[in-house]
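FAQ: What does the model actually see?

It sees only this:
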Amino acid sequence: MRKYSNRLICSFILSFFVLWNADAQNHHSPALHYYLKHVDYLLQDGGKWKAKNKDHKPGDERSAEYFGYEYKKGINPNTLLLKITGWFPKKSQWLVFWDGFYTWDYKKQKGVYYSVNTEGAVASGESEKITADEMVLVFSITSPDGKVEKNKDVEKFSNNQIMSESFKFSNNKWETTNSMNWSRLEQPKGTLSFLTTRDGNFEVYTMNAEGKNETNLTKNLKLDFGSSWSPDGKYILFASNRDGNEEIYRMDADGKNPVNLTNNPATDNLPDFSHDGKKIVFASERDSKNREIYVMNADGSNVIRLTENESFQESPSWSPDDKHILFTRQIRDAGDTSHSANGEIFIMDADGKNLKRLTNKKGYDSGAEFSPDGKKIAFYGKTAEGNFEIFVMNADGSNVTNLTEDVMEDYSPSWSPDGKWIAYTKGDSKNYDVWIIHVETKIKTRLTSHPKRDESPVWKPVD
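And it is asked to produce this:
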């Protein structure tokens, strides 16, 4: 990654060598006051920033699409740690270029910086100027072969943005080398449920959107799978064979008070709460081994069959206004003599009328879910190369776009309540984990890293 060494450090190296003690403002120069102000600014919302790489090459797995700052508190109140990173979409990873720290030099009354990059180059320098909205750092980069370059970085702060301009000292003058605009790297919030086999069989767990505070809700020796939150976040639906066959259960959000809602000798599964909390749509084999789509009241009463078809159907979900239901139907087009299954996304009115096919592509498409604003639909399906990906399309089925573009298999999308993120399952035949992807930037974050299978995340509507 030699090509990033000098250019990145010029753009990244400035920021904040700070004393965090509020009393220090009364005993040191005005510059320290500005340090404290800027440090608070940088560390808000997780302390992560991103800038688009103007030279990104989409087909090159060695090309970073974004550059990143990652700030953390240091070993003492005067020290700030900084990693300079790059997002590589083909690897689904942030990789570190530079790793260093800032601290405050009391004798010089300046901030000082020291960092080392992955190739062994060393950067060191100190602040030249700091004001209420600007900071200037002069530093040298010494390469492993002893070559020294003198650099300067100017950064201005305004409206949750960092505008950086970098210079190199050449021919006895400062020459501009790069300019970048930085914005905060958004961090997901909320709670997700997911399925895992880490306790020996499938259980329903919850965790926060950082992948922490994992909690087993079901704690049962039988299989528990599939989940859907009530709109107020007080209940979770799931399917289980704990009574001898697959039934739909409702439990409190903490896993207590499980209740069998279906009590039918046939298979009932894949439940989804309506957004008003009054109805549950689900799949069942009670009238047909092909599996049909049904709806019932939230207490399990008044079961109504919505579809009657010779083909297999699954994965029903509600539109935000509860007027429509998405589902997958396995179909075979005229002239198709293959043995492979072809699943397509359909939509119908909440009473089963006005059926319409939304997708028309090869391979199995399923897991469709409306975005919170009802304008988009996420689903998983196969590419022309045969790999499963997460796709997003307009609500009418137009403009199908591959969101994940991944070498791994991707399944089971779930929108965050603010519509900015999609949680999903990623993996291969060896194992699966829960990931999230930021819809706008396509930056991915892995939430689970367990040797057992983690899958089928569902975002809690409220927190």
